Amino acid sequence: MQPDHYVLRLLYAHGVGLEDLGVPRRDGAAVEADPCKVWQRFADHYYLFRGTPTGAWLDYELHEVFGVQDQLSGDTAPRIYDEIREKLGSPEFRPRALFERFNIEVLATTDAATDTLDHHRAIRGSGWKGRVIPTFRPDALFRIAAPGWPAALDGLGVRDYSGFIGALAERRAHFKSLGATATDHGVLAPYTAALRQEAAERLFRLALEGRAAADDEQRFTAHLLMEMAGQSLEDGLVMQIHAGALRDHNRLVFDRFGPDRGGDIPVATEFTRNLRPLLNAYGNDTRFTLVLFTLDESTYSRELAPLAGHYPAVRLGPPWWFHDSVEGMRRFRERTTETAGIYKTAGFNDDTRAFCSIPARHDLARRMDANYLAGLVARHVIAESDAHPMARALAYDLAKQTYRL
Fold it and tell me: CB-based contacts of 353: which residues, under 8 Å, 6+ apart?
């Protein structure tokens, strides 16, 4: 319960205190320490998740992964808790056993640019055949106005702009040596703009002196996205941009419990003008792949599908977060396929933090894509003989192609 922002946000919205769910407070104040009581509170409110993707995923996990026969409720909670706890203690539910049971070919973690990746080296050195790879995410190094930027920079070990850019390239190479095929960049707005060398150096110096403002950070990030696209052209790493989440909207929750507690809210996002500098510089090169994710559905048909339907480098990531749902997936297909087709999308890759939800999320996505294709067949838009390879592409081939796996 405690690290799952999907669960926390809806319970909190209905008045369930995060303290009562055992979420640690920043000030060290007491919170519920009994996991049985936390589970009971969750089960008492499980009806709140009916009709939501979270409810669909959790039902699948309980019934298909854990083999629970009863519906979760306040009455069944203790019995189901004991059943799950017993199964989690068995060899069949060890992470590697589940990895193989779920038929996972590749699992990619998302890691800070300065991460040592010791766990990845340990997995590689263990002789296990499972493929677990890192993903390069340098966001903390881009946020030069944030209080945590000096500590992030210390992890990189540089004190000048040229060294900074060189160190990013070296870290990318290290990630790639451990199997990475992609980078990931989370931004509020996908603003891109190339700065002159002296302008970028000046912003870096301002940050070193602790004088960088929000506008400085926006310009620096816009420039670094251009740099990252250029480096992707050189090292072959696929570039992902996740745009449109206003982080930690609820200041009280953030101050009391920290980030990732369900308070990240979507905002309207503009892609066409913001990405024009990057796409004019790199979007026509077939060696470069840029995968775009958004929380703003209004951009699907107006901006994202036309961009993907024109620039060779652009692919559309699947519906993300609030739209990673039955209706969200349907709307995405309806609003992008006519302009971009399915072959300019990245298929489906989940971004779950909950290992046991992986098969649930893929099952839901595949059912929705099959349903969409069946509708096209029924309306004689495509032939049934075409729908079968399209279904395979959406479920499997496109993700492997997009992420060079």
Answer: 3, 4
Q: What pLDDT, on the 0 to 100 scale, is given for residue 353? A: 85
Helices (H), 236-273: 251-257
Residue 402 CA to residue 399 CA, distance in Å, equals 5
SS3 content of the chain, % helix, strand, coil (to 5): 55, 10, 40
Q: Which two tokens stand for residue 154?
A: 């210390």
Do residues 281 and 311 touch, judged by C-beta distance below 8 A?
Answer: no
The model's pLDDT over 72-116, given as tens digits with 9 standing for 90+, comes to: 999 999 999 999 999 999 999 999 999 999 999 999 999 999 999
**212/204 Cα distance (integer angstroms):** 8
Q: CA-CA distance, 255 to 249, in Å (whole number)?
A: 11
* In the block, residue with structure tokens 């340990």: 122
The per-residue pLDDT for range 258-301, each reduced to its tens digit, is 998 999 999 999 999 999 999 999 999 999 999 999 999 999 99
221-263, pLDDT tens digit by residue?
999 999 999 999 999 999 999 999 999 999 999 999 999 899 9
Q: Give the model's confidence band at 35: pLDDT under 50 very low, under 70 low, under 90 confident, else very high.
A: very high
pTM here?
A: 0.96
Question: Can you tell me the distance from the alpha carbon of 244 to that of 232, in angstroms, rounded to the nearest whole number?
Answer: 22
CB 254 within 8 A of CB 305: no
DSSP string computed for 296-342: -TTHIIIIIHHHHTT-TTEEEPPP-GGG-SHHHHHHHHHHHHHHH-G
Q: Contact 188/222 with Cβ under 8 angstroms?
A: no
* Rounded Cα–Cα distance for residues 206 and 131 (Å): 42
- CATH superfamily, domain 1-93, is uronate isomerase, domain 2, chain A (1.10.2020.10)
For the chain, which residues make up each domain, given as ranges?
A: 1-93, 102-182+196-223
Both tokens of 260, joined, read: 């990732």
Q: Per-residue b/e over 16-25, b at no fewer than 16 CB within 10 Å?
A: bebeebbbee
